[in-house]
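ugh ok fine here u go
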Amino acid sequence: MENKLTVHVRHIERTLRVSAIALFFALSVWLLRDILLLLFSAVVIACVLRGASDAVRRVTRLGPYTALISVILVTGLALGTLLWWRGSAIFNQADEISRQLRTQLSRIWDEMQNSSWGSILAQQLQIAGKSLRTGLTGYVTGVVGSVLGIGGTLVVTAATAVFLAASPQLYLEGSLRLLPMAWRPRGRHVAGELGATLRLWFLGQLVDMLIVGVLLGLGLLLIGSPLPLSLALLAALLNFVPYIGALAGAVPAILVALAQSPALAAWVALLFLTIQLLEGNVIAPWIQKRTVSLPPALTILSQTVLGTLFGLIGLIVATPLIAVLLVAVRMIYVESFLERESRPVSLVEEHH
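structure:
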């Protein structure tokens, strides 16, 4: 009786200890959520830079640091060339998009005030706008500080990504030392798979954005929509965020086309709908078969949850984060524990 009581007490003690550790870990993750998201963003960028530098090394036989510096310089040179070649046109068209959007919103506002139901809604929006302006009056300094903080955060994230890409083995081996000796080979294999998953995800997103941008640009040009280059570029960039970015990219194009005629706006909406259906049912599945396959429901749910909890940064990293979590769960929990425990013990294992 005493032995059973002792075992029961030890079981309760172990359960409480594990629960306390889990609670402490969850609380630490929540308190450090912003730093962890930025660190994950740096890891994603580092995996992409390392993958590109490894590809350069295989072709040119350069050293690892030289190849990495070459990738960074070529990327910066390509962006600088693009801005020098088409920068003024892109900025002018962006300014034109902004002007036409303001014109369309003003026209919609006037039409709302001239209707019975719209006037009530307009009054409520005016009241909400006044309250918002009153509340924002004392936060100008905070906004400026936030902008400067964002700039500093981007610099820190980029610098961290470069250091991680330059010496990945240093940080990987240091992290693996936190694991028991027997787990380190498996941990090294899991880390390699996670890095490959992030690189393939980014490559898939890049190809998807490129295809969508080209199709939209050609389509907008053929139907005679104004500012086809800028609108297609904007939609392609926003398409980096799956599902939500597609809608965000369509709204400016439709509003700009509405300034010309309702018929043109309808054609633009039909073009975006057609390309997004094509992207969702043909292009994205074809790319995912060769890169990373993600369940759409989990993708949307992760974007909703992380976007609600962490804002824009959470929305951006939701898809790669769920991708690596799926790989980690499969390799660490399913393959290493569930399937390993369910395998029959061989004669060799019984002998040992």
